[in-house]
Amino acid sequence: METQLFIVPTPIGNLEDITLRGLRILREVDFILAEDTRTTGHLLKHYDIVKKLVPHHQFNEHKAIVNVISRLKEGAKAALVSDAGTPAISDPGYLLVRECIKEGIQVECLPGPTAFVPALVNSGIAADHFVFEGFLPHKKGRHTRLSVLAEEEKTMIFYESPHRLVKTLLQLADYLGADRYASISRELTKLFEENVRGSLTELAAHFDKKPVKGEIVIVVEGKMNVKA
Ligand code: SAM
Questions:
Q1: Is the CB–ligand 1 distance for residue 82 below 6 Å?
Q2: Does the Cβ of 219 fall within 6 Å of ligand 1?
Q3: Is the pTM of this model over 0.90?
Q4: Does the CB atom of residue 114 touch ligand 1 within 6 A?
Q5: What is the whole-number distance in angstroms between the Cα of residue 1 and the centre of ligand 1?
Q6: Ligand 1 in reach of 18 Cβ (< 6 A)
Q7: Which of 16, 62, 83, 203 is the most buried (most CB within 10 A)?
Q8: SS3 assignment, position 107
Q9: Cα(first)–Cα(last) distance of the chain, in Å?
Q10: What is the chain's Cα-based Rg?
Q11: How far apart are the CA of 157 and the centre of ligand 1, in A?
Q12: Sign of torsion, CA 101 159 123 112?
């Protein structure tokens, strides 16, 4: 069976970070489902690709899926891209993939950029077992999640917005311990990429000095079980 929906990861900052196959697929499909047609438009322009862009984001996802599935059933081929990185990783994608599987439509996700992998590797924290937490809940469920994570032994990975970074680091310090080792990756693959490592309280103090800008991944060491 031939693939009809391609999930295509796109750069998280550096436009060179897209695979040759990703570019070929974007050229070959009938249309591209894009989280933000303007952002994807810039990428396509950079690579001289002219293709129909169809908005597909968290606010129209449920409705849009019905139409996409019927076009794929008619034999069309499509690519799904998000603003940056791999679709379905803290981005729309999961619902469409699930529906395609249900409908017997062949789906294929290309390997490619995603922010948490370079952040994890840059951290120097154990990468053999980890949990990807994405964004912590902002309000409801936040304390419950943090309490559960206090016992987590695997390396933990979080996405966070710059204006919440210090608050989150201080809360993580409260729940997981002030000395817990962590690493912050900011603006990965971009001109001002920064990777800062230290205890949660050291990191909170570092980023509290001036307003934080850019995109952030937090990697935190798991709880160490000291056996007697
Ligand atoms: N789908 C994306 C992926 O595969 O990583 C994630 C999309 S999510 C809406 C956006 C979050 O990813 C940002 O708030 C930040 O936490 C992280 N992120 C994306 N690009 C980044 C970058 N260049 N440097 C650091 N973090 C980044």
A1: yes
A2: no
A3: yes
A4: yes
A5: 33
A6: no
A7: 203
A8: strand
A9: 56
A10: 20
A11: 12
A12: positive
| Cα(154)–Cα(132) distance, integer angstroms | 10
- At residue 210 the predicted structure's pLDDT band, cuts being 50, 70 and 90, is confident
Question: Domain 5-109: what homologous superfamily?
Answer: Tetrapyrrole methylase, N-terminal domain (3.40.1010.10)
pLDDT of res. 102: 97
Question: Which of 37, 7, 220 is closest to 119 using CA atoms?
Answer: 220
- Which candidate, 194, 196, 218, places its Cα nearest to that of 130? 218
- Domain-by-domain residue ranges, the chain? 5-109, 116-225
- pLDDT digit string (tens) for 102-140? 999 999 999 999 999 999 999 999 999 999 999 999 999
**Which CATH number describes the domain made up of 116-225?**
3.30.950.10
Ligand 1 touching residue 187 (CB < 6 A): yes
Q: Is the CB of 185 under 6 A from ligand 1?
A: yes
Which residue, chain included where needed, has tokens 């439509």?
105
For the CA of 82, the closest atom of ligand 1 is 1
